[in-house]
Design a protein that fits this description.
Blueprint lengths: L1 H26 L6 E3 L5 E3 L7 E7 L8 H12 L4 E7 L11 H12 L18 H9 L10 H13 L15 E4 L5 E5 L5 H12 L1 H8 L13 H12 L11 E5 L2 H6 L9 E8 L5 H17 L3 E5 L3 H6 L4 H7 L5 E10 L20
Parallel strand pairs: 3-4
Antiparallel strand pairs: 1-2, 3-5, 5-6, 7-8, 8-10, 9-10
């Protein structure tokens, strides 16, 4: 009986910890946390709203300490674009960050000429870990070391000797673990200390560059507010579309943007219930489908910059081109002879914020 009771209590403990972790994940934002700077003053991370952040736990006597130089180079390149590095020295890994924060700051200034902000020493694991790191680890757990890399294999071997199941825990594994944070406070990625700064820079560029960050932020929206898009915004989207590249600048496309709410009502349910619809037509022989596709991408990215959501669809084409219920809608399009309705784009103000779906980077290979 005592054994059963003990098991039940253990299970309750696990559930409680899981619930707490879920609570951290769901109810908190990175901007809710306060940290102490190198002078011991409280700093709210809300001061960094709208900036791209790289949060890193550091040490001054570690094999990875030379990364300070690489981090400072990164900071100098992108600080003007709204990029900040938040440095938290930590003495938990081999006691490689001894001394006071003032001594640490002096060391980093003399040896690496750092200009990014350093904060007071903290713990990142265990009973006394800073709540910021509890949050960060709940958002992005340990993803493993690249054991094909020599340094990654050394780290894996060292940590596995200490704990055979070390990789199943979200704990920070060593100095110079990094978290990339988007301008809206989303925790995008966690980097282990063996990962190349050049790889981090590539990810960071997608956030600090406004064009690239717009591409990364676009999602397929399937729920919209009951609010038609203003005509001037639809015009801007169309202008972006017709400025897409096309073969020999032939511009073999025809675009129809539906603002008539009665026509939209006729096709409700087929177009994600969006308040407006963009219909893209191309020659029926299919030779210029690529051009029309490039046009659609331009329009969707333009819509994203204007605070609009989009979803490209081919599914409704059969209904729109053959169903009697869509006849008035179909007749209004006035599709040029020899053209076909290739796809439609639902467009409107988003009523959802879907998360990004994973992308397979292994599909890309660089031929050197």
């Amino acid at each position: 009986m005592r054994k059963v009771l003990f098991c039940l209590m253990a299970m309750m403990g696990v559930l409680t910890l899981s619930a707490q972790s879920d609570g951290i994940r769901q109810s908190q934002s990175i901007y809710d946390f306060t940290v102490k700077d190198d002078a011991g003053k409280d700093v709210s991370l809300a001061e960094y709203k709208g900036k791209v952040l790289l949060i890193v736990n550091t040490a001054t006597r570690c094999g990875f300490t030379p990364q300070y130089k690489e981090l400072e180079t990164l900071y100098e390149k992108y600080a003007k674009d709204g990029f900040e590095i938040l440095d938290f020295p930590c003495n938990q890994f081999g006691e490689q960050a001894p001394g006071t924060i003032q001594e640490i700051h002096q060391f980093c200034t003399i040896n690496f000429n750092i200009n990014f902000p350093q904060f007071d020493k903290i713990e990142v694991n265990g009973a006394n870990e800073h709540p910021l790191y509890t949050f960060l680890k709940a958002q992005k757990g340990f993803g493993g070391f690249d054991t094909n890399d020599q340094r990654g294999k050394l780290m894996d071997d060292m940590l596995r000797k200490r704990d055979a199941d070390y990789d199943k825990k979200s704990d920070i594994k060593w100095n110079f673990t990094k978290f990339l944070v988007s301008r809206d406070g989303s925790i995008l990625k966690r980097y282990e200390p063996t990962e190349k700064i050049s790889d981090i820079e590539a990810d960071m560029l997608m956030e600090v560059n406004p064009v690239l960050s717009n591409m990364m932020a676009r999602r397929s929206i399937r729920k919209y507010l009951d609010k038609p898009v203003e005509h001037e915004k639809l015009e801007a989207v169309a202008l972006a579309g017709i400025n897409a590249p096309s073969a020999m600048n032939r511009q073999n496309w025809a675009v129809r943007i539906i603002e008539d709410q009665k026509l939209m009502a006729d096709v409700k349910g087929q177009t994600r219930n969006a308040p407006n619809l963009i219909c893209v037509c191309a020659p029926a022989d299919g030779r210029f489908d690529l051009d029309a596709g490039l046009m659609g991408e331009n329009m969707m990215l333009a819509a994203q910059t204007l605070g609009l959501g989009t979803c490209i669809q081919t599914g409704p084409i059969r209904f729109l081109t053959t169903d009697e219920k869509a006849k008035a809608f179909r007749d209004s399009l006035d599709i040029p002879e020899g053209y076909k309705l290739l796809y439609v784009i639902s467009i409107g103000y988003p009523d959802e914020q879907p998360a990004a779906k994973p992308r397979d980077a292994s599909k890309v290979k660089y031929i050197l």
